[in-house]
Design a protein that fits this description.
The complex is a heterodimer of chains A (209) and B (611).
Chain A lengths: L10 E3 L6 E3 L19 H5 L9 H15 L9 H22 L1 H11 L5 H4 L5 H16 L3 H27 L3 H32 L1
Antiparallel strand pairs in A: 1-2
Chain B lengths: L16 E6 L4 E8 L2 E4 L9 E2 L2 E3 L5 E3 L1 H9 L4 E2 L23 E3 L8 E4 L2 E3 L1 H20 L2 E8 L5 H13 L3 E7 H12 L4 E8 L4 E9 L2 E10 L4 H20 L6 H18 L4 E8 L2 E8 H25 L9 E5 L6 H11 L12 H15 L4 E3 L6 E5 L3 E6 L7 E7 L8 E8 L9 E9 L11 E7 L5 E7 L5 E5 L8 H11 L3 H31 L5 H20 L2 H14 L1 H16 L1
Parallel strand pairs in B: 1-11, 11-12, 13-18, 15-19
Antiparallel strand pairs in B: 1-2, 2-3, 2-4, 5-6, 5-7, 8-9, 9-10, 13-14, 14-15, 16-17, 20-21, 20-23, 22-25, 23-24, 25-26, 26-27
Helix pairs in contact in B: 2-3, 4-9, 5-6, 5-7, 7-8, 11-12, 11-13, 12-13
The chains are: A mainly alpha (209), B alpha+beta (611).
């Protein structure tokens, strides 16, 4: 009798009232106590459908909804066990949110869900066209002396990134992983360029003070 | 027999008031939310400020606040001020401050946090802060009765050591910290909840010893920090200091070189402070300095004052610029800027801030009190429950030292907390059996340019070729912004964990000794705390079993039910009686009596799923 529930992976046991809890539930349906985070993917955790292009305001809405339920601030007067579980829940919730919010991390994540391993390795490019493109923008950046000049270059980089993102959506829908890897690689390099332009901007304004 | 069901026992104790404390460099403020209204607790003169100044008399007396500040002019050698600048600092951290800090400093034997020598005593900054907190607590208890818990604010840019030191000080003062929150976030709460401000806002917080800038998005009760930056060694003290320097150089012209004691330096600094405050309202003024019976008169007008402090003000503006770039936004997207801290009364600062942010700053709430008001609101929200949501970030990147003294970032700055991130590292030499994990905080590439938080050794790595071992280092930052680091060798499973504390903090032993020394009723306090914890746990069990009875009570026989009811009643009466041992026994009995019930409930749950 005792072992019966172990056979069924769908139902687990509430740590507090020992009653049955459907796996993935955040709270026990009987005693309403917070449960440990379950092993689900980021999309399921945030309750949004799994695709590359996301409605970011919906992502925020869902994130805030779950934060309101789970945040450690809601458990200050509860037992330390509940506080630990709340921290664990929100830690994975934050990870899910940070991953899905960021177009590059989201692409990495979808690749991983599709079974790609060693993504850092497969997104290293030997494509000389891409490298040339990057080098050119890189040199433009180094020659830029004013914030306005940098802004023009930033707009160029931004446009390229947006193009990558729209094409990525198509690639993921068609489950064309090779193209998705290629586009993710492009996005990664442009993202790096964008970060470079930001630090260049800080550097230049620093000098002008 | 009908089941009897009690009112669900409330989880928080309604009689305990939770307060909000702004533990400032120059002044501290305490506030509370009462009947839905926030209220700053004031002295008889109506002032909400408690100067963060402590005078240690030779007779062992400790005086905090205005009285202590008066001693600064007459008896400065017994007075400690601006202690916040030393929280969590080692001696090497504060070399640049030595001129501005008129204390005699001592070094801890273990190279830990700095010590001060005052009136024959050696004190840590934690103890001095605890004395200030005790005075704050006394003011609160005077007005509200018993106060046990608080939300305490810290500068957003405070590092891990300084946050831990603040928590330790509260522990010494017998205050339970519900949460450490960042000062700019607290100010935003006060504005967002009271004035219904919505959108993206900047909080410019220029206090006595620290400068913080935070970008926050506020919408329908959600306060989301987008980016934060600052300088923990830049504050109003520096403005005082630049005035004092001018006055002293004028004296040198008059009387030639003088040697000035640290006591006299304190006097000149407080004259600098008075001049700054005066020039925030008036266009000029003059002040007299008397040292070694030689008096000198010093005139200063607003224009000269502003030229003296331009560099400092521009530094704050350039930090703002960096944070805005960091957040990937433009100034135009910012709807408004909130001013916090006494320094924001300086006209030049107001002017530059409105120029830079292209809008008139918000000052509806007193900039000295707004942080405490926000903290009080959060204290209320945490204890009484609310739909407000505060989502904060790590202010500084966290990483570990790798080969060649290069920092490998594990958690980048502006990551939402709580957060856990892991990174894998490997060995450098063949058969390397241990590894030094050196945890640092900061934005620079090299270890020596960052702040060292702690280091520990992971030993017992089995013999392997260099690069084979897989050491997984995990960083966890909790909701208070405090860091814990653990390291694990994946192949063998050897594990080590540290709560990041040692470098410039206090050791557990030191804390225990201080607690023993300083709290007259330490033992009772611990007993009370232990019972309170056991009570929360017991209430959880009561609620759980009652809920289960409502849902599945029909699974029990009359006899089983009455046994469980008896057990519930014993727990309830043990809660009332207040004896911890009895409470623990009754809770254990309750658990024992409900075991069979639990098994039947699980089985029913599974059958429901299958049907």
């Amino acid at each position: 009798m005792n072992d019966l529930y172990k056979l069924n992976s769908d139902v687990s046991c509430c740590w507090s009232c020992k009653g049955p809890v459907i796996k993935h539930a955040l709270f026990c349906p009987t005693c309403d106590v917070i449960q440990p985070p379950s092993d689900i993917d980021h999309f399921v955790r945030l309750g949004i459908c799994r695709c590359y292009v996301l409605d970011l305001s919906e992502l925020d809405r869902q994130y805030f909804h779950f934060q309101r339920l789970l945040h450690p601030d809601k458990f200050v007067c509860h037992t330390s066990k509940e506080q630990i579980l709340s921290q664990a829940q929100v830690t994975v919730l934050n990870e899910a949110y940070e991953t899905l919010k960021n177009p590059l991390k989201r692409a990495y994540y979808l690749l991983r869900l599709s079974g790609c391993v060693d993504i850092d390795l497969i997104t290293k490019t030997t494509n000389s066209d891409l490298l040339m493109e990057i080098m050119e923008i890189h040199e433009l950046l180094n020659d830029a002396d004013t914030v306005d000049e940098i802004k023009v270059i930033e707009d160029q980089i931004n446009a390229k990134m947006i193009l990558c993102e729209t094409s990525l959506e198509k690639a993921f829908v068609k489950e064309n992983l090779d193209i998705a890897v290629e586009l993710t690689t492009r996005l990664k390099y442009f993202k790096k360029l964008f970060e470079e332009s930001s630090s260049r901007k800080i550097y230049i304004t620093g000098i002008n003070i | 027999m009908l089941l009897q069901i009690n009112e669900p026992t409330s989880r928080s104790n309604k009689n305990d008031v939770a307060i909000g404390i702004d533990l400032g460099t120059t002044n501290s403020v305490v506030a509370v939310v009462k009947n839905g209204q926030s209220l700053v607790l004031r002295d008889e003169q109506g002032s909400g400020l408690i100067p963060s100044v402590v005078a240690y008399g030779d007779d062992g007396s400790i005086v905090v606040g205005n009285e202590a500040r008066h001693e600064l002019l007459s008896n400065p050698q017994i007075v400690v001020s601006s202690i916040k600048r030393l929280m969590g600092r080692g001696i090497s951290d504060i070399k640049s401050l030595v001129g501005t800090l008129p204390f005699e400093l001592g070094i801890a034997a273990d190279g830990g946090m700095v010590r001060l020598k005052v009136s024959g005593k050696t004190l840590t900054p934690v103890e001095v802060s605890a004395d200030i907190l005790l005075a704050i607590k006394a003011r609160a208890e005077n007005a509200l009765g018993s106060v046990k818990s608080a939300v305490i604010t810290v500068p957003a840019y405070f590092d891990d050591a300084a946050r831990n030191a603040t928590k330790d000080a509260a522990k010494l003062a017998g205050i339970k910290v519900l949460r450490l929150i960042n000062e700019p976030t607290a100010a935003a709460l006060a504005y967002g909840l009271d004035n219904h401000v919505e959108g993206l806002y900047a909080i410019y917080d220029f206090g006595g010893g620290t400068f913080d800038i935070s970008l926050l998005h506020m919408e329908r009760g959600v306060f989301q920090v987008r980016a934060t930056g600052g300088d923990v060694a830049l504050g109003g003290d520096d403005l005082d200091h630049s005035i004092a320097e001018v006055f002293l150089s004028e004296r040198t012209k008059l009387f030639g070189n003088e040697t000035i004691t640290s006591t006299e330096a304190k006097q000149v600094l407080s004259i600098g402070r008075m001049a700054k405050e005066c020039l925030s309202i008036n266009s000029c003024g003059d002040w007299v300095i008397k040292i070694n019976d030689k008096s000198s008169r010093h005139y200063l007008d607003l224009k000269t004052f502003e030229s003296l402090i331009t560099n400092i003000v521009e530094r704050t503006i350039s930090i703002c610029r960096g944070v805005i770039i960091d957040a990937g936004i433009s100034v135009k997207e910012i709807k408004g800027v909130v001013l916090v801290g006494g320094c924001t009364r300086v006209p030049l600062i107001r002017r530059r801030v409105s120029e830079f942010f292209e809008c008139n700053p918000l000052v509806d709430i007193n900039p000295d009190e707004v942080v405490a008001v926000g903290a009080a609101m959060q204290a209320y929200a945490l204890t009484a429950g609310s739909s407000t949501l505060l989502l904060d970030v790590t202010p500084l990147s966290l990483g570990i030292e790798t080969m060649g003294g290069i920092v490998e970032r594990v958690i980048p700055r502006n990551t939402p907390i709580p957060v856990a991130m892991a990174q894998e590292f490997t060995t450098y030499q063949n058969n390397q059996d241990s590894m030094l994990i050196h945890v640092v905080q900061g934005e620079r590439e090299m270890v020596e340019q960052c702040r060292s938080l702690a280091s520990f050794v992971l030993s017992g790595i089995p013999q392997m070729v260099a690069g084979r071992a897989r050491i997984c280092v995990t960083f966890v930052v909790d909701a208070d912004g405090l860091l814990t680091v653990s390291a694990k060798e994946k192949i063998t499973g050897i594990e080590q964990e540290v709560s990041v504390k040692p470098s410039y903090g206090l050791t557990e032993d030191e804390m225990t000794r201080m607690l023993r020394d300083s709290l007259e009723h330490a033992r009772e306090d611990i007993k009370v705390r232990l019972f309170a914890e056991a009570k929360v746990e017991a209430i959880r069990s009561l609620l759980a079993v009652r809920a289960a009875l409502v849902a599945d009570g029909d699974l029990l026989s009359i006899d089983e039910k009455s046994q469980i009811h008896n057990a519930l009643e014993s727990v309830e009466s043990a809660i009332r009686d207040g004896v911890i041992e009895i409470l623990q026994t009754t809770v254990a009995t309750l658990e024992d009596k409900t075991k069979i019930f639990a098994i039947r409930r699980i089985n029913r749950g599974i059958h429901k799923r299958f049907d």
